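Troubleshooting log. The previous run stalled partway through. Resubmitting the same four chains, unchanged.
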Amino acid sequence: MVTIKDVAKHAGVAFKTVARVVNNDPTVKPENREKVLRSVEALGYRPNRAAQMTRRKKSGVIGFIADELLRIPYTFDLIRGAQEMAWKHNRELMVLNINEHKYSLEAAVDHLFQHRVEGIIYASMYHRQVSLPDSLTQIPTVLANCYTSCGRFATVVPDEELAGEQIVGAMLDKGYRRIAFLNLDERIIAAQGRKAGAIRAFEKRGESLQNLHIESVIVEQDGQLISRARLAACEVIKQFKPDAILCGQDPMAMEIYFVLQSLGLKVGEDIGIGSFDNWDLIPELLQPSLTTMALPHYEMGRWAFNYLLDERTDVVASKLPFRLISRGSL
Amino acid sequence: MVTIKDVAKHAGVAFKTVARVVNNDPTVKPENREKVLRSVEALGYRPNRAAQMTRRKKSGVIGFIADELLRIPYTFDLIRGAQEMAWKHNRELMVLNINEHKYSLEAAVDHLFQHRVEGIIYASMYHRQVSLPDSLTQIPTVLANCYTSCGRFATVVPDEELAGEQIVGAMLDKGYRRIAFLNLDERIIAAQGRKAGAIRAFEKRGESLQNLHIESVIVEQDGQLISRARLAACEVIKQFKPDAILCGQDPMAMEIYFVLQSLGLKVGEDIGIGSFDNWDLIPELLQPSLTTMALPHYEMGRWAFNYLLDERTDVVASKLPFRLISRGSL
DNA sequence: CTGAAAGCGCTTACAG
DNA sequence: CTGAAAGCGCTTACAG
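Second attempt completed without errors. Output:
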């Protein structure tokens, strides 16, 4: 590979001058700069990042540990958000996927330490509590889409409660009066927050809570998710008679569309449907297309990166809002 | 940060001895090895990868360039496949997402060269032709899920034709006789191959091609994908009267399920449904669940990495088979 | 089995 | 504005 010395010889200057040009040091005679630039071009020189890192004693690398417990399409936006910031600020993002079988979290952290990362983003694929090794306290660390019980790390998570309030508020504002919320498992933090938000929306508007039915229809049993969404929808329609249904996630909404079609009910006309996630193609593919609360994964990725970039050390718990995407189902 | 010299002082040996222990050089007295290991543990020493790379003149890094034209959930398996191999062989995988707006391909390649990558995997998110800068010929490069017209690079792609033959063959073997294939845009290589495979399945079994209807129902117009899947399904059911429908992708199959339900037809009983992709949750969420051909993204990621690992230079065009996932719809 | 010297490709710190 | 020297934390090559 061509080095700084090769370029120097080719350009007829000292290798230090080449280093100056490559690092945009302004104190180089324009004439020499030109010469060097031409040689760089001619030889195809590119600085050796490993050597730079060694000498500078700064890696410029931020580690990103992603747990792969679930495979949810939009979660990749967390990585994307961080990566775009990294690119913009000329930093490296070193992404490591961990999962129980293949790599331990410890091994991932060790790996990142070997690369002398200047900060670590630990991101969970769904909003939940995690527990992390103590070694992470040695280095600036942010948690994205998750939190620890110890409370020693800065975190950024979706504002579940606000999301619940917003979507239910939007439904009420559209004139829907009787809302059935088919929620996720209430042991999940998301389900708790959204439930509280839904109730708050009713209370703020002085609506009677008699007109709000909340029920968990996806529950975890023995490590498996069991959905009784279709059955629950049938029952709730018959007994509670909602004029709108709020679904805990878009895939569930898809199932509800099937139920409604089988009952001869038209979404957006006979009954309104709202949901959470903005899950891949599903919202656009349904007819009518699905109004849903998009998770702020991209924004969380950015937030986490910027926290590290700004060299912050405050232990904040930042909550980012969802984005209401209005389509035809409400 | 603690260095090899700190450890040496702490252990009372020469720093070279520490290096030997860290690199598992067997020619170290067990006694000294113990001493060093204890000091490594006590001081929390971890080798500095940048310094190792600099001196070894080997980066151990493989670059992975991912085009993000589309956001298809399972495409992440391409990265996963490569990453797991990298981990296993103690290599680094440096993943760079490119997209038209943010980073140019050139910039990504330049970035990878700065890191002295020992090989590059260029992966496309859907099977298509790409064009790549000449600079990539300077370094071992494999294309995954894509190919160039120049034919200078090794490639690994899904075997579209075999997939078409397998799924249609499976349908025929189950006793379905009249099959409507609602294909993707035929300008897409996947659609071409699958069509040829479907025809071959009929021919191999001596079935009349009168009983195979193939039609493209998702087409690109002005850069936008237009799906007329629902309409086309209605028409084809009325006119061609198939006993099974093969869908070009799982999201389309979902739409067809809605159509069939509205027509009072039961999937798996009145009519069989097959599909391609194994797209995220969709196949499992449909009732009955969807039989589909899973794309070999994970396998392509592994294949590409192994090609580079084995230091191959042959310009092969490897085709990997899909996996038939049998569920309730056939 | 161990160690002192030289060197990887850069940057830092300093002299001119 | 330019350059020679020293050094980053390791590995290589060699001597003992």
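Takeaways: The longest strand of chain B covers residues 119-129. The radius of gyration of chain B is 26 Å.
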